[in-house]
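SAMPLE LOG
Freezer: B-3
Tube label: C17
Construct: single chain, 158 aa
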Amino acid sequence: MDAIRLEWDNAILRVMTCNPDYLVMGMSSETFWGGLAKANELKAHMPGLTGLRAAMGSDACQAAIRCYGDIKKIGVLTPYWPVADQCQIILRRLRFRDCSPEGSLLPWAAEIAQTTEKEMMDSLKELNESDAKILVQVGTNLGMARMAAEAEKWLNKP
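STRUCTURE (predicted):
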C-alpha cells in the first residue's frame, strides 16, 4: 500500500491529461489505509494537486451509512484483510461502533476479481449473524454491484 501511495501523484497527473471535471478515486482500500487522518490528508491534497474536488471510497462509505440514520453497528465485507483493520479504525472514529469485519487474504487483484457470488453470499450471511444494522462492502476489485440489491432483499437490510 505504501508503494502505491508513492506513485499517486504521478498517476493522478497522468489522468489529468484527460481534462476531467471531477476526480473519482477508484481504489477504495487506499482511501482507508492509515485511518481517518490519512484519508482526510489525501482528500485535502487532491485540490492542490489537480484543482479539482475528489470523491473517495472512505467518504462514500460514511455518506451511505449516514443515509440510514443513527446507525452504530455495521458489518464490513472486504477482500483486503489489512484494510478491514484500517476501515474499522476510520469507522470507529466516526462513531460507527462494533464493526464486524469479514475479509480474506487474497494477494493479487486478479484473485479478488474472481471471487464468486457464492463466496460473497457466504461472507454476507456470516456478517449478517453479527446483528450489524448495515453491511458495507469495501474493495473495488470485489465485483458485488450486481448482487448488492439482491442481497439487500434476502438479508432484509441495507
